[in-house]
């Protein structure tokens, strides 16, 4: 599950493209399948979205929640790929992008009526 926050007037016009870019990165770095996209956009009014100093109104926060198992090198590769591709394809500078990866143990995920540690039919590998 990926949640993307930003100021409404900046996020709304780019959210479809941003979703494509994020998913392309997830597929290329993590091996996620084409149909495994769970993105939630949270456009906010400027008065509800405070940013650190030195950021523009394009400041965007991307929270990626995933099952534990990816190596530190894989996680870093994903973050770096996201920075590069978001800048190249969406035009948001890396200084205006904040990315957090949060891992939960497979037993802490619930989908399709089971927990992640019970799933035996995932179309992707978690340990990469």
Automatic annotation (TrEMBL):
Source species taxonomy: Bacteria, Pseudomonadati, Pseudomonadota, Gammaproteobacteria, Oceanospirillales
Matches recorded under Pfam families: Tautomerase_2
Protein's name in the database: Tautomerase family protein
Source species, domain of life: Bacteria
Source organism: Halomonas koreensis
